[in-house]
Amino acid sequence: MCKGQSDYIEYIHQLPGTDSPEVFGLHPNADITYQINTAKAILDTILSMQPKEGGDRGGESREAVVSGLANDMLSKLPADYIQHEIREALQRMGAILPMNIFLRQELDRMQRVLKVVRQTLQDLHLAIEGTIIMSTSLRDMLDAMYDARVPEQWLKVRPFSFFYITKGLAKDIKKRGNKKTA
């Protein structure tokens, strides 16, 4: 029991600086999510403050770096899946088996991802060359690729699939494409 003002002040200073999520009826992982989102927001703010135009530093321009990255990614993307070949292969394996149904769905999703990635990379390359107009979405894509982030246009198609593409597992996709043709 506090007897005076100094006792109250001392008690207040002993309280924790931040409230735990349990106080608000949340799971303890809510604090982890909050900290991750806060760190991401801070890093995004720092990245957005970077100069967008190169100076006379003698290095490659942003456009040259992203163009090289786009060309590299385009060269590593597997060819589009040929739908009738997939259908025939699944028929031979048993089209109504649950794993084959799942495989067909994943192949369709991956085909959509590959199509969007290929088209946007080609458009970005053409925009960097000046053949087509650099739209706002292409400018955002250029900024995202330069900052080593996944472009928003790609995340709208299939967020989970870009884990594979952006984390260096494009090799795995290419291997799977080679196995399909072998």
UniProtKB/TrEMBL annotation:
Residues 37-157 form the Dynein heavy chain C-terminal domain. Pfam families: Dynein_C (PF18199). InterPro entries: DHC (IPR026983), Dynein_C (IPR041228). It comes from the Eukaryota. GO terms for molecular function: dynein intermediate chain binding; dynein light intermediate chain binding. One of its GO terms (biological process) is microtubule-based movement. One of its GO terms (cellular component) is dynein complex. This is Dynein heavy chain 8, axonemal. It comes from Chionoecetes opilio.
